[in-house]
Design brief:
alpha/beta, eight-stranded parallel sheet, 10 helices, 24% strand, eight-stranded mixed sheet, TIM Barrel, 29% helix, Lyase, Ornithine Decarboxylase, Chain A, domain 1
Length: 348
């Protein structure tokens, strides 16, 4: 089979989805499956849905259109604020979109009316991550704007955590959000149904039964796909952390003689610099985040360029055309799954 190739196990993705959905459902939280890290792959989306997620979410409209083309008919949310030239396509393909800008909301309402549709809006509040989101003190104003814009309906309110800064969400931050929502409900005499409390980094709080206030939804990608909590890298109990494997082909294999190690080279103390087995593989920084790849334990990454990855292969000289398997983190996986040069192959 051709390389470079990512093989992903649909059974493990389905199982991770099922376990997380069941655990969170027991504390009153629904799950949206996030597909941006896999380029909107419809087989993976279907595995998430089979596992119990109540809908899908993606940051790129092109991925949503791919899902729709491949027969995914469930509710899909666009979780990055849309660009203005995307609004007509957004209304046609997405049930929900996430917003923190009044001008965009006004134009979205017009696009919805032009299509004779009613589009649902999630308002995103800045909760300390420092990326996007409206100021919490303006939430009432934004809610009123959505309620008063023909063509729009309010789906709920949410917040982002640990997206730009590696700072985990806290119970206190989610309680501040919940209290603000309750004040808005009281002032505007309306009910806000969906409270989205973040992504996979919110899982430790939710699974520890910490008080999350009104939170009743999480948006999960990394935890479902890789079975881990993103900030710590810890494998979550009962989940598979090996659903994705990269296979890269050896295109050169030789012994290297060096006077000194490379700056990032980690040699076994028993190895000699004049006895280094090295392999060059046909994958590079154009395809993935090399720092996120995990080679077999007997090997180490020496370096990479745009099209080549160089390995210290330990005591073994690899054969040309042989394949080396790599595990990966989310950054490496998302770039591989979105690269047109990488083959994607589902196994079960």
């Amino acid at each position: 089979m051709r390389t470079p190739r990512v093989e992903f196990d649909l059974g493990k993705i389905r199982a991770n989805s099922k376990i997380l959905c069941e655990r969170l459902r027991s504390v009153g939280i629904d799950v949206k499956g996030v597909t941006k890290g896999v380029g909107g792959d419809s087989q993976i989306a279907a595995a998430m849905l089979d596992g119990g997620v109540t809908g899908l979410a993606d940051a790129r409209l092109s991925n949503v259109l791919k899902l729709r083309t491949n027969g995914i008919n469930c509710p899909i949310a666009l979780i990055r604020s849309p660009m203005h030239d995307q609004l007509a396509e957004l209304v046609a393909s997405c049930n929900i979109s996430y917003h923190s800008d009044l001008t965009t909301l006004d134009l979205l309402g017009q696009a919805a009316r032009d299509a004779n549709r009613c589009h649902s809006v999630m308002l995103m509040v800045e909760a300390g991550d420092g990326r996007d989101g409206l100021p919490i003190e303006r939430l009432e104003h934004f809610v009123a704007a959505v309620l008063n814009t023909p063509g729009l309906t309010l789906n709920g309110v949410g917040a982002n955590f640990s997206c730009m800064q590696a700072v985990p969400p806290t119970s206190a931050a989610l309680m501040v959000l919940s209290n603000a929502i309750e004040r808005v409900e009281s002032c505007l005499r309306t009910k806000i149904a969906c409270i989205s409390g973040g992504n996979s980094t919110s899982l430790p709080l939710a699974l520890a039964h910490v008080n999350l206030g009104r939170v009743n939804e999480l948006r999960l990608g990394e935890a479902i796909l890789l079975g881990i909590e993103p900030l710590s890298g810890r494998v979550l109990p009962g989940l598979f952390d090996d659903a994705f494997v990269l296979f890269a082909e050896v295109i050169e294999s030789s012994r290297k003689t060096r006077d000194a190690p490379l700056s990032n080279e980690k040699l076994n103390t028993e190895q000699s610099l004049t006895n280094l087995n090295q392999a060059v593989l046909a994958v590079g920084t154009q395809d993935t985040d090399i720092h996120g790849l995990k080679p077999p334990t007997t090997m180490s990454v020496l370096g990479a360029s745009s099209d080549h990855l160089v390995l210290n292969t330990g005591g073994t000289q690899l054969a040309i055309e042989s394949e080396v398997p790599f595990r990966m983190n989310y950054s490496a996986m998302s770039r591989l799954m979105n690269s047109p040069e990488v083959i994607k192959h589902a196994v079960n």
